[in-house]
Every structure is written in C-alpha cells, then in structure tokens.
Design goal:
This protein is mostly helical. It is built from eight helices and no strands.
Amino acid sequence: MFHLLDIIGTLAFAMSGALTAMSKRMDPFGVYIIAFVTAVGGGTLRDILIGRTPVGWMVDLEYVFMISIGFVLALLFRKRFDQLRTSLFLFDTIGLGVFTLIGLEKGINVGLHPIICIALGTMTACFGGVTRDILCNEIPVIFRKEIYATICILGGAVFFILRRFNLDSDVLYLITSIVIISVRLMAVKWKWYLPTLEHK
C-alpha cells in the first residue's frame, strides 16, 4: 500500500505540475521540467534533511518513469480536461494527501519525534507545489489564505492518534489520506480560509 501510494502521489503531482505549466503556455521541455520538480521537490528536500542521499528519485528510475507517464497523460488528454483548474486542483489534492503520509513514514523510520515527523510530512507534501508555483510566477498556494499546509498538519495529527490503536498499516494510510483529501475538498467547497494579516 505504501509503495502504491508513493506511485500515485508522484503521478498526481507530475500531472498537476504539467497542467500548471501548460496553463502558462510553456513549451514541452518547460512543461516536463515543471512536472518533474513538482513531483520530486518535496521528497528531495525531505531526503536531504534526514541525510538520505542520493535522494530517492536518483536511485530508483521508477520515479522518472512515473513522472514521464504523468507528463504524457497530461499532454495527450489536456483537451479533455475541460476545466483545467478543477483537474489541477484534484491532482494536487491527491498528491497532498499521499505525500504527507510518505513524509510521516520516512520520519518514523529514522526515529524522529512525532512533531518533527508531521513537519517533515508537511514539507514533503507542500514543497513541490511551492517550487512549481514559483517557477510559474505564481504566489505559492501555501502562502495564500487557502487552507493547504494546515491540512497536512491535521492529517499528521490524525495519523499519530490512530496509530495508538494499532491499526493495520494499510488501513492507517488509507484513513489518513482520505481525511487529508476530504478536508481539502470541503475547505474549497465551503470556502474555509485562514484570516489574512495586513500591515497598515
């Protein structure tokens, strides 16, 4: 289940990056680069922080293959994504839920405190999107009033609470990812936002 979620998250974020780049009218090379950094940006930061080098995508070509597949799918079916913004949002949300879990699990594997694991999960989920938005000349979603990183933190808290009940790991992963994805969908549907701060 963990490996499957990793593959799903990589594919989803690659498509999210590719769709964003196409909305900016980039050439195919630019679209591929944005897809790539969106998919591996968070994982690269995570691996560097925990001292796991070479980072994951450098030692496992499966990541490169999945990113390439995501790029090709986005390219081939871009006209079928009638509502580009909706498609981008859905792929980004799936990646958010999955990559939070991966970051949590990596932190647990190296013996980090739960609070640090949650921070690591949040960075894993968000940093690829931050890099994507910066390269596409957008204010990163994480810095806007939309609830984004907060959902990763909530998901991490749910993960560690449920972990105390000794649930099967596959069930634990599934519930946590569903919580993260569902809360983000509800936040957008009902317009839940964090208050903005202004300096006068």
